Amino acid sequence: MFEDVGALKLQPVDDAILANQTGKGIAGDIISGAVIILLSQWQLPNGATAVASGSLAIGTNTSNQPNVKFNSAASVTGPNVREGSGANRNASATGGQNVNVNGVSQITQVAGNGNLGTNQALIDFDASPGSLAGGSYNNATSAAASNANGSVKASVSLANGGISISLQTPGGIATQTIAPSSAQQAGMIAQLLQIAGNNQQVANQLQLHLQTQQMSAPMLRQIGVLQALQNTVRR
Q1: If you compute the radius of gyration of the chain from its CA atoms, what whole number of angstroms results?
Q2: Verdict on whether the full-model pTM lies above 0.70
Q3: Structural domain of residue 142, as residue ranges?
Q4: What is the pLDDT of residues 148-193, one digit of tens each?
Q5: DSSP structure class, residue 216
Q6: How far apart are CA 197 and CA 84, in angstroms?
Q7: Strand 103-111 with 162-169, pairing
Q8: How many independent structural domains does the chain possess?
């Protein structure tokens, strides 16, 4: 059975809000805290289950300095019934891993029958301080698990400023990636499901909670002067 993570609450976000968040850092005057939670789960017909999760919490301490906590976990269990894995050697779901999209991408490729696959992403720009303070963190930057013959694998890694999750099973793969922007490419959030089999149950879930704080009156005046100077230069 999949873990009970509760229903995701949808929050409309328009271009104006997204534009105001671009490039704003922790301990600045826009974003004061953030929590990123990734969870991927795969259940095969024979009861074998692969789960990987990673979370990253960024806030500020009493000195207004960044405070970072992280957690990673991976597990593989089962099978627990006398039934096949549902994999179909004649089925193929490929190509999605080669797609490179700036921003947010969700890709699902399915070849088979009776499958259930979901990519869910929640971006919350109005997180409460309590939602950022909760959760448990083991400060492990990676975790991996596998069954005895290596046919089912789960892994998570927090490195180079990003988070990546991967599930590999006889019935396909599930991945989630958060990568920061660099000189070579813009930042990205990517969810990928590739199912090649029957009766597979797969879920990718991603939550990004951002806590924002209002800018002080002096800061607003400073930004106003800066924008006026920039407009003058452009003319």
Answers
A1: 21
A2: yes
A3: 15-234
A4: 999 999 999 998 888 999 999 999 999 999 988 776 667 888 999 9
A5: P
A6: 11
A7: unpaired
A8: 1
